[in-house]
Structure formats: structure tokens, C-alpha cells
Queue: 2 jobs
Job 1
Amino acid sequence: MKKIAVIGTGLSALSLAYHLPTLDITFFEKSWRPGGRISTRRHENYIFDHGAHYLKEDNGIIGFNEFLHKINATKILNGEFCANIQNQLPIEKKQIIVGQNGMESIPLEFHKYLRYPTNLSTQINKIETINQEYYLHTEDQEYGPFDFIFCCIPFEQSKNLLNKFIDFDVLSVPNFDSIWTIMVALDKRLGSPFQFGYHMTPEISFLMNQNFKHEFFSDECWVVNMRAEWTKEYYNIENYVLEDYVIDQLKKTFQSDAKAVFKKSHRWKYAYAKKSLNELDSKNFIESIDHRLYALGDWCHGPSMQDAWLSGKKLAKHFSELRVQL
Ligand SMILES: Cc1cc2nc3c(=O)[nH]c(=O)nc-3n(C[C@H](O)[C@H](O)[C@H](O)COP(=O)(O)OP(=O)(O)OC[C@H]3O[C@@H](n4cnc5c(N)ncnc54)[C@H](O)[C@@H]3O)c2cc1C
């Protein structure tokens, strides 16, 4: 059986592995856990989904929500939602899909379902070829040989790994927005009339209460996303300055005297794909001339989890149609 290496364990990697026919697949993941930008951070009693927040019910991808439900990765919630907080738009009820036990349940349950061997805490920084077979390298180890390699990582990182084999000069560059996220636990309720909403201030694009997602802790927890343009301008802001600024903004907006009992911030360098490969070049993935090396990810189709799922699915279909002798 042909040997396949999948670099990354984000949703695009998991989707690819799921949609490929049964193969000798091995995952390589630089983090200690699968999931990439779908990430749940736990601290004592606090839980924060500080990457992807929720999945839309009507995301337009047939079978995606159903699959996640089947593997018990998700649950449906009803929340109070405000589309524009600053402009005081009316609060509406909104049904969303979230992870069963934090958003991380989505990649964790999915990865468990697939049962493919996985090398965690393994950052691949070089790919080499000898006699049409491929080898992966970390700082101190070599893995291989492999017949096919799929890089399911952000575009720029794929380019760094693959530019010896693929002419990136002839391709357009799908670009990403970076996003600062802030996690805050408060000793009192903020008194917010909604649980999630957009456009709180010119700097804050989104915020979501975590208690209604996780249902069991006493302090009030929020995740706040700064706007992409703001993040660009304050890319190197000190974490504590940012955290204090956001807490101040929350208190002002809700006229609250709550105190922060926990705060943490994280900058996602590659948060949302701004222009996808498909939009730019009408392509669904990138491949080498010998059809053995591929790059894919949400950035092939758009900025969301459903785009990552679609990206894996489309490449798996193409790969199966190549009628490669597997
Ligand atoms: C703050 C934030 C909020 C978001 N909110 C939502 C939302 O509410 N709804 C929604 O649908 N989407 C949301 N998204 C987008 C969604 O999270 C992504 O579209 C999706 O998770 C991307 O999956 P992916 O597999 O393409 O990439 P990733 O999740 O980035 O996966 C790439 C994986 O590759 C690993 N990796 C990278 N380089 C290497 C290497 N050299 N060697 C080994 N492993 C490597 C990484 O550690 C990572 O696990 C949000 C994203 C962010 C950052």
C-alpha cells in the first residue's frame, strides 16, 4: 500500500484523511494536540474557545454538520445574538453548533474516529526526495519514505516546505488576516443582554460568552476578538497592555465594576483567509508536477471551518479520480 504523510491535524487534514480511500496514512503535527485553529484553552475552572467559536447551521456544506453530530463531536445551542452592538441592533435568538465539550471536541473526536497513527509535537521543517520517494525532516529526525505528502497548513508555511518542488511564482498568494484574541474571567456578571455579538467598539470585532457554551463554571468568561485592521496596527502590543485595554472596554460598555480574575491573550498569525486560492486562481489546491506533493487548507476556499472541510474533501476526490495505483 502506498504510504501517505499528512502534515497538520486541523480540520482540512482530518477531512482529507476521512474522504480518502483507506490508506497507509500518518499524521505529523507540530502542536501537542490535534485541531489547529479549533482550540479550547483550559485554566483551572475556566474554559475558553479561543480559536473557532461556532459552526453555522446553514453553512451550505452537505453532510458536514451531520458527520460531526454522528461522531458525537457537537451540540446545538440557542443563544442571544447581536449583529451590531455599537449600533444597538435588536437582539435575536440564534441557533449555533458548538463542540460537545469545548470546540476542541470537533478535532479530537474526529481524530479519534480516524485512528491513523499521529506524531504530535513534531514540526516538519524540510521535505527531501530520493528516487521518487519523499522524506520528512524535523530538526533532529527523518521520517519516510512516503509516496505522497499533503501539507494541510497555512499557505505561507506550505510554500516554505514545498518551494523546492513547486513553482510558487506562477501562483497568486492567498493572504491571511491576523487576529488578537483575549480570554477574560470576571468575578461578576457583566450584565450583557446577549451572549455573542459583533462590532462592540471600532477595535473589537466579536465577543462571546463562554459560560453558556460550557455550562458549569461560576465566574463569567468571555473571549474577545480584535479587528483585523487593529491587530495589524498593534501586532506587537504587549499582552498585558492589550488585556487591560479590553477589560476596560468591556467594563465601560456594560457599565460594570467586575474585576478580572484571569486574563490571557493570543495572537493568531494566520487567522482568517482573506482571499482564497479559488477566488484568485480558480484552483482547489496546489500540486507538484509529479502529483505527489499537495498543499491545501481553508485558504483554498475561504475563512471558515466549512472551507477547511471542503478543501480536504475536494482534494480527496481529485486524488481518488487520478486512479493512482494504491
Ligand atoms: C480566532 C479565530 C476565530 C475563528 N472563528 C471561526 C468561527 O467561529 N467559525 C468558523 O467556521 N471558523 C472560524 N475560524 C476559522 C477556522 O478555525 C479555520 O478556518 C479552520 O480551523 C482551519 O483549518 P485548517 O486545517 O485549514 O488549518 P489549521 O487549523 O491552521 O491547521 C493547520 C495545522 O497544521 C499544523 N502545522 C503547521 N505547520 C506545521 C509543520 N511545519 N509541521 C507539522 N504541523 C504543522 C498546525 O499546528 C495546525 O494544527 C476562526 C479562526 C480563528 C483563528
Job 2
Amino acid sequence: MIRPASAVLATINEPDAVASLAPEEMTEFEGLIRRQLELIGEDPDREGLAKTPNRVAKALSWLTRGYELDPRAVIGDAVFEEDTENMVMVRDIELYSMCEHHMLPFFGRAHIAYIPNGKIVGLSKLPRVVEVFARRLQVQERLTEQIADAVQDVLDPRGVGVVIEAVHLCMMMRGVEKQSSKTITSSLRGVFRDDARTRSEFLRLAHHRSEGF
Ligand SMILES: [Zn+2]
């Protein structure tokens, strides 16, 4: 398929854009998906599947585009001097990732909080930090740690707390088929780990059910 020049120039935010695959890599990728279809007993030449290898290759590239992203670059210059010692929290950040064991999606919400030590970050940047690490093959535990590490690294705050609650399709669709179990992970740094009051305030806010939004 020949893609128009405008599509080639599409940003990586567009679902159709391929992050960094060279044309020969794309061809190889499509060949592998085609073979995969054969191995599960499908006929890759039937009409409905004709463009599937191309679509899957593009989708997988997009869903794993976090490998090309760097948290410092994503935050950019959105770090500001600010004299506040109160907790800053962004709740309910939507999150979509893929488990590295089955390459099946897991998804849910992340809650991130920190206590500044002279620097704050533009609030819209925290969801972007989540994207950097969620758009890779992951385990939820490491994802949680990496987000906390990145906030710690860029802001050097007095403490960081990250909670992720997610459901895993590999648990829901196969094997144990636990349809409604949710996995909750947390990572606490600095005063969130060492100070019981800060920790309990954060965990109370993180687990509080939002109403009206
Ligand atoms: Zn899995």
C-alpha cells in the first residue's frame, strides 16, 4: 500500500502512525503476523484478513511506542520553581499497557502524588510520564516503580507516591478467568514511605472513590 506523504509525517500521537519502522522492517513484521495467522489455523488470504498483518504491525508499533520516549524529554521545560510543601496529586490517569508475559492488554488508572522540594511540574505532564512507561511490554509492578523513579529523578521532591489499579486481560480471558479481580500496586518514596501521616493521607486520597466527575 502506498501511503500519502502527509500520513508518513503524522505525529506519533496518531494511532495510524508507525513510530520508527523502516520499510523493510515493516515488510518483515507483516510477514510474521501473516505466519501467525497460519499457525492459529487461519487463512491469511481470505478477504477479511487481507490487510490484517499491516494493521497489526502498525497497532503493535503504536502500542509500544514508549520505547522511543524519554520522561525528561516529555516533561521538557514544564518544571517550575515553587515554594509549596503541600501534596500535589493527579488522580485517575487512564492507563493502557500490555503484559510482557502474554502480550495482552492490561488497563486501569494511575494516581500520582508528590510533595515538592522547591519544584513543581505542569500537571498535564504526569499523564505523559505514565504513557512513556505504559506503552511498552510491562509488568504492573515495574510500571509503578518506573513512574515513581521518573518523578523522583526530574523533580527531586520530598516524596513520591504512585498507585496503579488495573485489570489484566491475560487473567480475565484465559487461565484462571478471574473476571473481576483488580491488581493494585504502589510505590512510595521519601516521606511517602517514611512518614505514616503522609502515607495514609496519600493512600486515602488514592483509594477514595471519585463522585461527580
Ligand atoms: Zn499476562
